[in-house]
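A student in our group prepared the protein record below, which I am reviewing. Here is the record exactly as it was handed to me.
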Amino acid sequence: MNTPHEWITTPIGPDILRGALDLERTDRGVLPHRLPAHARAQIPDGQLAMAEAQPAGVRLAFRSRATTVELDVIATKRVYPGAPRRPDGVYELLVDGRHVGRASAPDGDTLTIDLSSGASHARPGPVETLRFGGLPDTEKGIEIWLPHDETTQLVALRTDAPVDAPRSGGRPVWLHHGSSISHGSNAATPTGTWPALAAAHGGAELINLGFSGSALLDPFTARALRDTPADLISIKIGINLVNTDLMRLRAFGPAVHGFLDTVREGHPTTPLLVISPIHCPIHEHTPGPSAYDLGAMSEGRLRFTATGDPAETAAGKLTLTVIRDELARLVAGRTATDPHLHHLDGLDLYGENDHADLPLPDDLHPDLATHRLIAERFARLAFGHDGPFAGTSH
């Protein structure tokens, strides 16, 4: 058994952290961010600020002969009074790409959010130590995937052998932006979100800019995509624009064009895939906004409902069917001058027939099996033969 004097503490910095666009040094540790500081300065609401600080797709990556690894963290536990308790976030350990362990931080900072008013208050909590032992005494690649839906400050990384930066694997970098479905809502583990699974299938290095409730065609998000080096880019557009009731059809088309124009400023010939929404019955023909189903919540269940009027689509309110049609039209129009732009109908990832077999448990987000289904189909349609990302995996 290791004694304290045998530990080697390695500074946590960009050289051993993948999937984050920025690191904030706090008085308690290192906080990974999935948006850069200049974008965070323009965030207009707490929902996106919280979502981008949740490290979906972010992982520590290094090489070592270590047989034991310890990671000190401060996790942020979210509490929604009246709603079911959220499970603890999961930290997954991979050795040479194989899952060998997982752990959770049972305590940490607490953020309590009132779903009816949006008011919140925070309470500081303790540092927790996660230990992964019994690793082979050989040179190996080690990854620790951070919880996709739980903000985590990294305090210290300790090993019983020296740590080196990971080798460059030559895999293409896939930069993806989307909603809570891409963020990983209802997935049980960080490697179980559909983008993480699809990246593994496609042999790509994932940078996941899926932001729960916040895929809203924000210009600062477009600039973050523009400025992030990537070999492959995908943008999933639709559900949040409906369930926030953010804009009308007149604004939607120009906003999509502007978002894509900005991304193309930094990636003029990179394969760029625009993905329309997956099937979601409550919003197929009914505009937003979405709301929590208070009846279900009183029974300890979390479900969503659409509160708009289908008749309002005539006045330009958005539904998922409207968005799918408009995205297909816009992308088709742009491909005449942009041969590297592609479109994927979200119904090909999860459609009406799939919903009959694998319904969305809260009427909005996929469960574990559906994340796997979406990942497998995306890998086949995007990375597979004749797909827009074909020939890029190694």
About this structure: The radius of gyration is 21 Å. The longest strand covers residues 69-79. The mean pLDDT is 94.
